[in-house]
Amino acid sequence: MLPIPGMPDFVTLTLIVNSAQVVLVPFTAGGLWGITALPGYIGSAYRNRWWENGVMAFLFSLALWGAYHSVLSVSNQFTPPG
User: Fold this and answer.
1) CA distance linking residue 19 with residue 73, whole number of Å
2) Concatenated DSSP letters for 38-77?
3) How far is CA 53 from the centre of its chain?
4) Which of 65, 70, 77, 81 is buried most, with the most CB atoms less than 10 Å from its CB?
5) What is the pTM of this model?
6) CA–CA separation, 41 vs 81, rounded Å?
7) Where are the domains of the chain?
């Protein structure tokens, strides 16, 4: 397929798609945290203990931080310099 004039190249498209995937990670981390923390989903014998909830909170905040910076990097890609 011939490249279309004015369209981004494959490197730019790859970076944008990977950045968009990082935005979805907090939803996955939050869903996993909810499933493992609530006894209605996993059972009261297997739900997270206090320290496991702490680890999940850290991982969720790390996912939010990554998604925020991913959105910033993509938005800076499209803003004109100066």
Assistant:
1) 8
2) -HHHH-TTTS--HHHHHHHHHHHHHHHHHHHHHHHHHHHH
3) 19
4) 70
5) 0.74
6) 49
7) 27-70
